[in-house]
Each structure stands twice: as C-alpha cells, then as structure tokens.
Structures
1.
Amino acid sequence: AQSVAQPEDQVNVAEGNPLTVKCTYSVSGNPYLFWYVQYPNRGLQFLLKYITGDNLVKGSYGFEAEFNKSQTSFHLKKPSALVSDSALYFCAVREANDYKLSFGAGTTVTVRA
Amino acid sequence: GAVVSQHPSRVICKSGTSVKIECRSLDFQATTMFWYRQFPKQSLMLMATSNEGSKATYEQGVEKDKFLINHASLTLSTLTVTSAHPEDSSFYICSARVLAYEQYFGPGTRLTVT
C-alpha cells in the first residue's frame, strides 16, 4: 500500500521569503513522486516529479523538491515566494509498477504581501 | 503540452436526474483516464480507472451502477452520475495518463444537486 502525509494543513509566509511545503511518503517499492498545485475551482497543475536520478528536482514557476530516501521525504521548496503562489498544494506518490496516484491531504499556502 | 478538458465546468441538477460529465484529451490519445472526486478543502479520492474499450475499474466503496464510466475512444471518457442526490454534490476531476509517468488533469466539474 502507498500513502502520502502532508503534516501541515497551512503554511503562511511573507512575500520574498523561502517557502517549504513538507511531504513524506510510504511505498513498498521505488517511489514516483509528484507535486501539484490547485487554484480555487480549478483542476490540478503539474509542478514537478521525481522518477530517478538527481535527488534535487527543478520544476515549474521556480519550484524545486528534494528527494530524501532515508527520510522518505519529498519537500517542495521555493527560494522566494510570491503572492501568486498562494494556492493548495498536493504531494502524490505511486509505485513504479502501478499507475494509481495516492494524494496527500493538501497544504494551503498563503503568501502575504 | 498535454491538455485535458472537461465539460461542463459547472452543472446544477435536480435530485433524481442523471448528469453526464465529459473528459477529453485534446492533443494526445489517452488509453487510460482516471476519475477523482474532491470534497471542499480535501484531497482527491480516486473513483475509477477508465481504459479505452474495456470496463472501468472502480475503487472500493464506489458504486459502479451509480457512477457510470464509458471510455469509448482514445480521447473521450464520460462519467454519468445516475439518479443524483444532494450527497453527490462535489468537484469531479478527470486525468489522463501521458507516457508512463504522468497524469494531466482536467479543470474539474462542479456538480450541485438540489
């Protein structure tokens, strides 16, 4: 069975400050990890993914995430947050041999001006 | 890039009626599409996996006779909510599998049953 935990329901940061959204996962095999962002009443937009290779993954809109196998984590980061980054962020995982994604509960990010 | 559309974006229907939601892959062919349900401020719950030309695979606890899924072509999957009730009101999102790794999501359909 696979699962994802996003320990923080909300993250609040000031514009220009670093942003981190935490994610830990559990899978029985090699994980495929994803981050998505959702704006109100919209579908999910893909930000980045980790399949294999470098542990630091760079994605859209200046976001990056670091895969840490020993800590089973895949935290999303942005060095300098923008007000427009305010949204709902989902971490997702799937096993290498399964197409089904399991999503975390989501983290609401609020960036204040 | 891969674009997935959904129609309608919003629908209001009366209790007891049926509603059909379409999910289309606009610039690629999708052998597999997924249907999710999302309650306010909650995560996505996978309802079913839709494969072109075959019966959908439903997740545990999802009533297949209530949520009818048809994947008649490589670019279209439909979800029909039959005999809708207020508790079926939700945000329904589809996604299409692209290559081996990624799913691209539609913009979602807000269903309100009165």
2.
Amino acid sequence: LAKTTQPISMDSYEGQEVNITCSHNNIATNDYITWYQQFPSQGPRFIIQGYKTKVTNEVASLFIPADRKSSTLSLPRVSLSDTAVYYCLVGAYSSASKIIFGSGTRLSIRP
Amino acid sequence: GAVVSQHPSRVICKSGTSVKIECRSLDFQATTMFWYRQFPKKSLMLMATSNEGSKATYEQGVEKDKFLINHASLTLSTLTVTSAHPEDSSFYICSARDLGTGNNEQFFGPGTRLTVL
C-alpha cells in the first residue's frame, strides 16, 4: 500500500485559493488518488478522485504530474466552512482493496 | 451518491458491557465493508475488513475476539465491542464501496461515538 505524506496543517483566509500537496512516491500502476474531507464527529466525505493529469469538479481540482508521485488538491475561493481535515488516499479500484489513512492536513480558514 | 448509515450515532455504556454498532449500505450492495476507529484529533485507523459471508480480516494489533464483526448480508455489517472498557471509547466509522458507480469512491458512514464509563 502506497504511503502518503501531507502537511500537518495549513492556514488561509476566506476567498483565497488553497493548494494541498500530497506525496505518494510508491504509488502503484493501478492505484487511484482520492481526496476526502472530514469535519469533526462526522465520517469522511469524498471530494475528488483522479488517476493522472487534471480532474475538476464543482468543488475542487486535482492536479497529478506525469510521474504520479504527488498530487495537489486545489480549493478555489475557500470559505470558513472549508475548515476541516483533508486526507489524500491512494488505492486500487476493488471492493476489497483497503485504504489506509495518513495523518491528513488540518486546514483552518480565517475571516 | 450512495449512502452508508450507522446506528446508533452515539452510545454510552458501562465498563464490561458489550455494544453493537450497525453499518448499512442503503442503496447499494457491498460485499466488503471496512471498520475504522478514530481517536480525538487523530486520523482514522483501519480495524478490519468485513467480508459478506466469510470471516473478517483484522489489521495487526486489533483483537478479533474483542471486536466481533459479522457481515450477514450484502447491506449490513455489525461491529460488536465486547467487554468494553474506557480505553475503547472512540469514534467508530464504517465504509463501503459501490462498484456500480464505476469509480473508486468509498462511502463512509456518519460514525458512532462510543463512550465507556
């Protein structure tokens, strides 16, 4: 299982773009990269997933370089409600493939 | 997206009692579900993989006789914390994948807060 490394914490202000980078040097060929958001006392919530290049949805973008050894979650124009812990996960597409959580990044947004 | 529910959302029990937590996939079938435990300000720790119709697979350091897992149907997995002690107090979260969506998204339940007195 590929291990992930993220910054422990980040701070930003409302309206700013926030980029959180995750390192996964040992990513396997069939691994996907998935980002989750977790608020206190809630289960993690899916944000975005990608395999290579760039993926964008209504809440975020995910940038993955060609070597796939890292990825960057980009949150445009953050608000106070984006204060949460963000987890980068790497795993294969299989119902039985377990996912191991890293430490996550605690993002704090200030007014 | 698919929904995973947990019951109860929070439970308080006395030391030495057993507590059962249910995890249900509401609109999809899940042959495999996962159980996690999370302590305050810590990351989720995978406890075990629950397999429908067969024995669960436990992670290293997790006592299978203490954390009993039963996955009797394609939509229900249960975790029973036997002879609970205060150190078992934690936030327990389950998850499952819906392969029918065509992606690798894993859906998480809302969690169960266990407090052992």
